[in-house]
Amino acid sequence: MYFFCVRLFSLSLLTMSSRVELLNAGLLRSDGRRPYELRTISINFGAQGTADGSVTYSHGLTQVRVSVLGPHEAKPGTRRETFHDRATLNVEVQLAPFGVGERRRRGRGDKRLLELSATIKSTFEPVVQTHLYPRSTIDIFIHVLQLDGGLLPACINASTLALATAGIPLFDFVCAISGGVHGTQPLLDLTTVEENDVPSVVVGVMPRTGRATLVQMETRLHMDRFEDVFKVACDAGKVLWSEMRDALRERTGDLVDKLEAGPGMTAVKETEET
């Protein structure tokens, strides 16, 4: 009987210690951020095989790699799915088994991945100037390397950068961020722990036009709280736009410098860097 009581007491301690305080009295979150503070962003425009545009995008501990191929002629088996007046977007998402905190292995036919691919496709269809490439296909391949919340925003932001790197015309950037409400306090850029405990919404905005191309909410949220989260998410989208735009400008400047230097100077510079 004594052993049974001690066991119950130890289990209750483990349960209490496993609970994470999302927001303390000093308005600090579990990872030390303020309610409106975003995680660190890292953008790497490394070449990936034969892709026309590629980028590795890290947002906090969430990391995705996106490769864009096209526009190119549709494959023989998929030509009936093309349109005579615009291009077709094809989006595929894969999860790396070592980067996801679940034992279940998700294949290409997984329902959750198909829904994620369809959401990304519908987000970019009004943004990509598909009318310039009739009867063609643009492929967007997304590989999730590490996951800690904000999967959909990371995929959308990385896809925007990869499309721009591939030289595909866009009407505007698409900058996405997740938000939620803890009590009455809006939060931005949620982690996995926060996404599991608070009502959340994902907002994708076009910063130059001020339009929203994506609003996704899988949990119930009061209308007044939604308006607060939506406003701060739109403001955060402009901050992301500044970071993404600066990264693209820096990469474009490097490419221009290499073209002006010529192939010989470029090879010498790469040898010195290595």
The largest beta-sheet arranges its strands as 1-2-3-5-4
Number of strands: 9
The percentage of residues in β strands lies in: 15-25%
The major β-sheet equals: 5 strands, mixed
Q: C-alpha Rg, in Å?
A: 22 Å
Order of helices and strands: HEEEEHEHEEHEEH
Question: Unreliable runs, pLDDT <50, ≥5 residues?
Answer: 1-18
Write down the overall mean pLDDT.
86
Structural class assignment: alpha+beta
In helices, the fraction of residues equals 25-40%
Structural topology:
Blueprint: H1 2-18, E1 41-44, E2 53-59, E3 62-73, E4 88-95, H2 111-124, E5 136-146, H3 151-165, E6 175-182, E7 185-188, H4 192-197, E8 200-206, E9 211-216, H5 223-273
Parallel strand pairs: 4-5
Antiparallel strand pairs: 1-2, 2-3, 3-5, 6-7, 6-8, 8-9
Description:
This protein is of the alpha+beta class. It has five helices and nine strands, in the order αββββαβαββαββα. The protein has helices at residues 2-18, 111-124, 151-165, 192-197, 223-273, and strands at 41-44, 53-59, 62-73, 88-95, 136-146, 175-182, 185-188, 200-206, 211-216. The strands form two sheets. A five-stranded mixed beta sheet has the order 1-2-3-5-4. The chain has a four-stranded antiparallel beta sheet with strand order 7-6-8-9. α2 (111-124) links the parallel β4 and β5. The longest helix has 51 residues, at 223-273. Residues 1-18 have low confidence and may be disordered.
Characteristics of this structure?
alpha+beta; four-stranded antiparallel β-sheet; single chain; 38% helix; disordered N terminus; 274 residues; five-stranded mixed β-sheet
